Amino acid sequence: xxxxxxxxxxxxxxxxxxxxxxxxxxxxxxxxxxxxxxxxxxxxxxxxxxxxxxxxxxxxxxxxxxxxxxxxxxxxxxxxxxxxxxxxxxxxxxxxxxxxxxxxxxxxxxxxxxxxxxxxxxxxxxxxxxxxxxxxxxxxxxxxxxxxxxxxxxxxxxxxxxxxxxxxxxxxxxxxxxxxxxxxxxxxxxxxxxxxxxxxxxxxxxxxxxxxxxxxxxxxxxxxxxxxxxxxxxxxxxxxxxxxxxxxxxxxxxxxxxxxxxxxxxxxxxxxxxxxxxxxxxxxxxxxxxxxxxxxxxxxxxxxxxxxxxxxxxxxxxxxxxxxxxxxxxxxxxxxxxxxxxxxxxxxxxxxxxxxxxxxxxxxxxxxxxxxxxxxxxxxxxxxxxxxxxxxxxxxxxxxxxxxxxxxxxxxxxxxxxxxxxxxxxxxxxxxxxxxxxxxxxxxxxxxxxxxxxxxxxxxxxxxxxx
Length: 467
Hints:
Layout: H1 2-19, H2 22-40, E1 45-50, H3 59-72, E2 76-79, E3 91-92, E4 110-111, E5 126-129, E6 131-134, H4 137-141, H5 148-164, E7 169-174, H6 178-191, E8 194-197, E9 213-215, H7 220-234, E10 239-245, H8 248-263, E11 267-274, H9 282-286, E12 295-299, H10 302-314, E13 321-323, H11 331-336, H12 338-341, E14 345-348, H13 355-368, H14 374-393, H15 398-407, E15 411-413, E16 416-420, E17 426-427, E18 432-437, E19 440-443, H16 449-466
Parallel strand pairs: 1-6, 1-7, 7-8, 8-9, 10-11, 10-12, 12-13
Antiparallel strand pairs: 2-5, 3-4, 14-18, 15-16, 16-17, 18-19
């Protein structure tokens, strides 16, 4: 794990150092100024959507639904303000006397009383700006073949620079795998583009402290804590096996689960890891299948996870599997087989029991004729959250939006509460748990509550000790 982590940290540090150079600062400044001009001209708010159409899930459909609702309402609502200091007052641009037509010099120039620079529009006036989504599917389809290790980095570079070349793009949502989201985040930080990552859970995404990067899903550490809590307090497991893929995602999630499980009294009797290209898991399975254990924690992707589960069942392993969020895919039962995959538990941030979620589900079904999934809800929330930030800040300028997101009060969307800490880390959302039954994932009601009760009691005990 340390090798992969240090390699990525080195990449980010090198590129982040480049971000501090005058050239990148100037490019970022130019984008902010162009966004100010676009606000003056009341142009569309352009948002990039980095999500391939052949990836499982309805992220793009959810984003388009949000765009439709925003634009049918007239667009995101903003106040016309000074583009330099965001003040709404106005003065003559020559002698700073209040008024549009100055009585002293008859100048028609306007300026802000705070910064004495040209303001974008006179007076406190409301305007609405429609949202335009830029979805580069052709850029995804034209990607050359590459090794598994390099493919995500190459894709991140090409897609992020596709958006960078469009000077009117103020934000990007998407880049689902962490291996793609992390290098893409460096590019967006350099060029002053807001980046919302709806699927990346690796801690490195927010650890550099980039000002323009935000995570829209709880990270691996929080996921592992809740998964261990589910195993300890809902399923009452005592002995477990951990298997993981050798990627940043798999290694970090497995390590975090190991630590959380140990804290809750679960003994880990065996751990193994495998390369992303591994297709034969029988040697790994043979090393522990005869040991005494209650369940297997699996930190990998749906493709390799499905094949591993299939082979485990063929070798007589009957214990249940508990997985990370990457196993939440329709591909899993197709690869493993319905019978082999039966009962697998995965964490989800999408619950269709909330009233706000039901409103979204009904709108999605009316638009497309079928029910949304978690990624459809994430796509919807991504665009709605950006529109909310635009209205809160009275601006569609990236640096203003970043500040607003970081310090705003919690906002509730279809996937739950959205709030961020200083580093852009998601705070507020909680995982629930779905169980695969007859080829479909179904919510396990209240399965997340025992661990939450434990956390509450733990906090109460610590408070009493301090007293």
